[in-house]
Amino acid sequence: MMKFIVRLHAEITVKSKSLRKRHGSVLSSNIRNLIKQHTDQVAVRWLWDKIEVEIPADEQLAGKVRDVLVCIPGISHIEEVIETDFTDFEGALQFVIDNMGPALTHKSFAVRVKRRGKHEFSSQDLAVYIGGGIRARVEGATVKLVQPQETVQLWLENDTLSLLVRRLPGLGGYPLPTQETALSLISGGFDSAVASYQFIRRGARTHFCFFNLGGAAAHEAAVREVAYYVWKKYSSTHPVKFVSVDFSGVVEAILNQNEPGVMGVLLKRSMLRAAALVADRVNAQALVTGEALGQVSSQTLSNLQIIDEVTHKLVLRPLITMDKQDIVNIARDIGVEEMAASIPEYCGVISNKPTVKAKQQVVLAAEAGITDEMIEEAVMAAPVKDIREVHAQPTAYMPPIYTQEQELPTGTVVIDIRSPEEEDEAPLSLASTEVVHIPFFKLANKMQTMDTSKPYALYCQQGVMSRLQAIALKEQGVAHLALYEPKD
Q1: Do residues 458 and 402 lie in contact, with contact meaning Cβ atoms separated by under 8 Å?
Q2: Per-residue pLDDT tens digits for 209-236
Q3: Rounded CA gap, 260 and 272, in Å?
Q4: Active site residues
């Protein structure tokens, strides 16, 4: 048999006896349920200060178990050990050399022994004997008690001797679901994916809510992939919900009001209004966002205060003080960097000269057209699905990109899909190519009356909205699409 010793996160070990027992019991159950997906021959024992996991001696299975354990919230670290019956000092020394001798060759080392039970010797006596034996029998091995290259870690418990062969870091945090339930507003990008992960590792069952601003099914599919990945890898012991809210009508209302500087604030307020209703549907106690202070105009303290006024729900922002690069680094560590990098986040692209300090009276006046009925209608139309049911491969479609006018195929019509304010401020004019202006929120309906046999190239300032609209139009059956993204 192979044994793993699971050490609880330090914050669990300082809790009251009853809470520690509850956390240990929940964590043991989570470990058992996940490993049973790979083998029925598993023993999980909760021993107050540790959890022991035993599986058959099979390296392929051990690799799968390692991958499982390092992704379970509530674990400080995992110690993989091998065991033998303890008879005497010489037998213990030979056991260490047989299993660690090659790793100690020409290395400095130290021997650490922890002992429990009645013995006629001390832990130090055993450590000194084994250390001396290694130095005498392993070529080039030298004792170094401070910062050695290798450490021989032994546990002697009554008549059983255990040797540490591998130590793996855990996630920390608390076991799922020892905390209350949260709803994460996920866009599929770095920030929302990392924020969701942070709440999962703190022991909160985390549902996902996606606001589809452009109506593209492929965009939603890509976001589902990110949500499914985070759930599957870090919280699959407990099922969660995925809710996709069609927000295209709300976006159109925001773009049609007369205060362009507060569009980002209006969008975030609308999302929180809707998310609070979704949270009630899935029985979540808090909303989670990936906002970081000052990252974009809507994330200043003044604007966040205005945004939060619309909901009675607690809004939690685990990334609020983090730098963007630190967020990206975490995304890389948890395995979502490549997926998140391929998904555009375009909450910010609907703002024109956004304000960093929105006035409440201006916001309220601009928000008059975004009624409670509009928000409720969008939420009630949104299906609440099990995350396991919505898992699907995202569409790989990406139209060709042209960076110069002369590259465009003959007869191409360039459609400028920016907002009217953006188009007025910097009109797009091409020498020999027809340009028409259709704001993105009207594009889908307008294309139904246009000649779809012609080649079209979509243009927007950032190149984000044009990509999403191209995906949406492709799904509508528009065949000849491209993107026009001129170089600066």
Answers
A1: no
A2: 999 886 567 678 888 888 999 999 999 9
A3: 20
A4: 460
